[in-house]
Amino acid sequence: MLFRSGVGKTSVGKSIATILNYCFFSSGSIYRSVAKFLLNNKNVEIEDLKIEIISEQCNVNGVIFDEEELYDNEVSVKSSEIAKKVGLRLLVKDCLISYFDNLDKPLVIEGRDMGSVVFPDAEYKVYLDADLETRGKRREGQSNMEETVLDVKKDRKSTRLNSSHRCISYA
What is the model's pTM? Predict the structure, then answer.
């Protein structure tokens, strides 16, 4: 499942996984966990990170955060910033492939690079979208009003600009 924030990828993905009795994972939780870890550990570099998925939770250098800790504006800003770093994206790709290879049942996964880079040969790929107002309201709810409809609109403009100038795929 691919792309934009606030369209319901996680909600729909979890529902599909439940109906089909598949595993579910959101790659965004890795970026948010790494962001939170780096915010808490200012002297750690990306190349110092060890990222694993254990029991459907992201473990960064031995630390697993509660999901509620990963949805604030500071973590959102930092995760957007670090998601552009090629070194981290390669770590995330390796982590997800390792996770997938060790599963005993199929996987529904959503997030950045899933259909184009991490699992380019996936049997099924789903693209979700929603209007800006809906996306903004969902993001406001997820961030306890720290991220607004205006932030989603600004993000849309910067995503378009960045999409035309990036060297690796975000699809």
Answer: 0.75
